[in-house]
Design goal:
The chain is about 95% helix and about 0% strand. It contains three helices and no strands. About 0% of the residues are buried. It is an all-alpha fold and about 170 residues long. The longest helix is centred in the middle third of the chain and has 134 residues. The protein starts with a helix and ends with a helix.
């Protein structure tokens, strides 16, 4: 035991003669050695796992970014094509509208020509009918006027005399 005391007393003397910074550095080095000896493999595995997880997330993010860029480019291309398709559709619809307009106008002109011809024919027929009615009316009025004039000019005795002459002529024909 006596040897133990001398060992301890030598350690204490050594401890007091070495500056504090050296002891702190020594303690730190011992701590690092203990950490590396007993915690080095788990710490290395943890850091490696962490590095791999971060690398995987970066790779996944890069892949997703590339996929998003691809989708963006695809949609931009579709939008560009869509603008062209819209313009083409507008042109097609405009052309169809012009053709339909021309067809409707041509059809309307044909209908107008038929109506005009029908109106002309109706007018001519109505004109003939009116002329015939006027002739008939003039003839009727002329007959009435002649009858009236004859009735005024011819007396009853002249009438009887004319009737007798007519009857005599008829008998002479037989």
């Amino acid at each position: 035991m006596d040897g133990d005391i001398t060992l301890w007393s030598k350690i204490v003397l050594l401890y007091k003669s070495v500056p504090l910074v050296v002891w702190q550095t020594f303690n730190f080095a011992v701590l690092i050695w203990i950490l590396v000896k007993f915690g080095g493999k788990p710490m290395k595995a943890f850091l490696e796992n962490r590095r791999n997880a971060v690398k995987d997330r970066i790779d996944e993010t890069s892949r997703m970014l590339a996929e998003a860029e691809s989708l963006k480019n695809a949609y931009a291309e579709k939008l560009n094509r869509l603008d062209g398709e819209i313009e083409e559709l507008k042109k097609t619809l405009s052309d169809e509208a012009q053709r339909e307009k021309a067809r409707i106008i041509a059809e309307a002109e044909q209908v107008a020509a038929r109506i005009h011809e029908q109106t002309r024919l109706t007018y001519e027929q109505e004109l003939r009918d009116v002329k015939n009615n006027i002739r008939e009316e003039i003839a009727r009025l002329a007959v009435e006027k002649a009858e009236q004039l004859i009735a005024e000019k011819v007396a009853k005795s002249d009438h009887d005399h004319m009737l007798d002459d007519f009857i005599t002529k008829l008998r002479s024909m037989n």
